[in-house]
């Protein structure tokens, strides 16, 4: 079996660099469409180790969609069939069963949605309980769906929360673009590289991205774009909160850490964690640490995960 066929290993190009595959289900929820906005119709499958899945969890809470969209948390100990549910890995604390089909893995959901599916069994998965299929498995699109698709059904205090406001879209798109390349995906390119050169190129771009963010947030700026919380904050935050506890170690992103090397990013990150419940309550440091250190077994075959840093995140 080649690394390309092995679900437990990332896809590596000939030059040793990691290239993330495109997500495969890209539908939207909209009035008059195949997937209508309805309370209780959709379900979100996630793993708390995963930054992409955590984006969707945070936005679900920021938009007050808890009663609209149910959630299941898979175990962070991914195996050949994807992310396991409690029937398979119930020993891992916080792992939930699949409430819809009692499936064992995310693979079963992908095969149910498309019996010929040959991609990766990734989370997040936004699932339609009515048509028994996947609506969307791309986090950047799921958070846009959550931001607007249910607004007509939501109380006004939540309908008016807009993480992608018209007047800031250009700036948000621009920042998302390089934050994704250099930081969100950059940490994976650093960690999954199989040549020295690919690693060094990736790790340098991670830190030049962080340097750029540090400049933007200097002077106690509360948010990345404008004076309000936007999806740009959510998308960057999920990576920074995993940085000191996981990427610094297992992905060798260790030129600096956030807590000592980036005071402005650290302040912004801590404020969102401690003062905004959707961020804190979507974060589980045990799932994050144990998940990265036990899943990337070609990097860490013993699956031992680190005790530090202590604390996982500093107080305000
Ligand atoms: N582009 C996707 C990426 C999702 C993704 O790669 N999730 C990872 C977990 S952090 C996963 O499930 N990987 C399983 C695999 O690649 O086998 C998104 O943003 O939703």
Question: In what range is the share of β-strand residues?
Answer: 5-15%
Termini, distance in Å? 48 Å
Number of helices: 13
Give the helix/strand class: alpha+beta
Within the largest sheet, what's the order of strands?
A: 2-1-3-4
H-E string? EHEHHEEHHHHHHHHHH
Low-confidence stretches: 1-5
Q: Which of globular, elongated, flat, extended, rod-shaped describes the shape?
A: globular
Count of individual beta strands: 4
Q: Please tell me the overall pLDDT.
A: 95
- Kindly state the percentage of residues in helix: 40-55%
SSE topology:
Elements: E1 42-47, H1 51-62, E2 69-74, H2 86-89, H3 106-113, E3 125-128, E4 133-136, H4 139-148, H5 156-159, H6 169-184, H7 186-192, H8 196-217, H9 231-250, H10 258-261, H11 263-275, H12 277-280, H13 285-295
Parallel strand pairs: 1-2
Antiparallel strand pairs: 1-3, 3-4
Helix pairs in contact: 1-4, 1-9, 6-8, 6-9, 7-8, 8-11, 9-13
Describe this structure in words.
- This protein is α+β, with helices and mostly antiparallel strands.
- Helix content is 43%, strand content 6%.
- It has helices at residues 51-62, 86-89, 106-113, 139-148, 156-159, 169-184, 186-192, 196-217, 231-250, 258-261, 263-275, 277-280, 285-295, and strands spanning 42-47, 69-74, 125-128, 133-136.
- It has a four-stranded mixed sheet with strand order 2-1-3-4, sandwiched between helices.
- The longest helix is centred in the middle third of the chain and has 22 residues, at 196-217.
- The protein is globular, with a radius of gyration of 19 Å.
- Bound molecules: glutathione (GSH).
- Glutathione binds next to helix 4.
- Glutathione is lined by residues 7, 23, 50, 52, 120-124, 138-140.
